[in-house]
Amino acid sequence: MNSIHAAQRRGITFQRYDMSQARQLKPTIEMVYRASYTEAIARGRSCETVESFMGRFERHSAIADLDLVIAYHVDEPIGQIWGWPLHEGTREWDGLIPEPDEQFTREDGTRTFAIAEIMVIDQWKRKGVAHALHDFLLSARREERGTLFVEPDNIPAHRAYERWGWFTIGQLQPTWEDAPLFDVMLIYLNPRECD
Ligand SMILES: CC(C)(COP(=O)(O)OP(=O)(O)OC[C@H]1O[C@@H](n2cnc3c(N)ncnc32)[C@H](O)[C@@H]1OP(=O)(O)O)[C@@H](O)C(=O)NCCC(=O)NCCS
């Protein structure tokens, strides 16, 4: 993909990790968060503190089919992204407004890949790193569609997602403590094969 090749030409490499490997990466994950969410951390909202983020990562790194990618420049981690496929009984869509029909929310572990986090450290923002991370992660996925949540006032992220083909399908407030209201976005990835 162009975005990946462009990043590689700048000396950026990508490394994929599964759940057990991700658990060993906590110091790296925290360092990249601190250097990517500088403005948000300074804003001081309880859901954006380092502790709150690492608490969420603790839960994410317990998900068996977690798929995580870190971008490195030389040996320095400069960005990260992760997510997982949704399974039957997921609460991902709970509270979505407008309320979707049953067919839309039906999950079986192969239909929808949910991106949980994407971030790039400040010095590397606006250089195509997030785009390349996004394409690297999703190019290996076989799900029919992707979903992610983004805060309505996160203009850089909204712009990026729209540029990459995502569209907003509604709004939702997740069940985790202090969760803000999010726009819910969707992208079509791979057409479903006939049964
Ligand atoms: C959102 C984020 C991941 C984008 O990372 P990035 O590496 O700078 O993104 P890219 O360089 O791949 O940019 C892709 C496109 O996004 C849009 N974009 C990115 N930053 C933008 C900004 N500050 N203002 C407007 N548009 C922006 C542009 O359309 C850009 O393409 P262009 O540079 O060719 O115009 C980064 O700003 C970040 O880490 N933010 C903090 C964490 C965060 O909010 N994550 C998303 C949570 S939902």
Summarize this structure as a short list of keywords or feature phrases.
Aminopeptidase; alpha+beta; 195 residues; binds coenzyme A
Summarize the SSE layout with pairings:
Layout: H1 2-9, E1 12-17, H2 19-23, H3 26-36, H4 38-43, H5 50-60, E2 67-73, E3 76-85, H6 102-105, E4 112-120, H7 129-139, E5 145-150, H8 155-163, E6 167-172, E7 182-188
Parallel strand pairs: 4-5
Antiparallel strand pairs: 1-2, 2-3, 3-4, 5-7, 6-7
Helix pairs in contact: 1-7, 3-5
The structure holds coenzyme A.
CATH superfamily: Gcn5-related N-acetyltransferase (GNAT)
How many domains, as an integer? 1
Helix content: 25-40%
- Continuous helix count: 8
What share of residues are in beta strands? 25-35%
Biggest pleated sheet:
7 strands, mixed
Account of the 3D structure:
The chain has 195 residues and is an alpha+beta fold. It has one domain: Aminopeptidase. It is built from eight helices and seven strands, in the order H-E-H-H-H-H-E-E-H-E-H-E-H-E-E. It has helices spanning 2-9, 19-23, 26-36, 38-43, 50-60, 102-105, 129-139, 155-163; strands spanning 12-17, 67-73, 76-85, 112-120, 145-150, 167-172, 182-188. The chain has a seven-stranded mixed sheet with strand order 1-2-3-4-5-7-6, with helices on both faces. Strand 4 (112-120), helix 7 and strand 5 (145-150) form a beta-alpha-beta unit. It is globular, with a radius of gyration of 16 Å. The two termini are 29 Å apart. The mean pLDDT is 95. It binds coenzyme A.
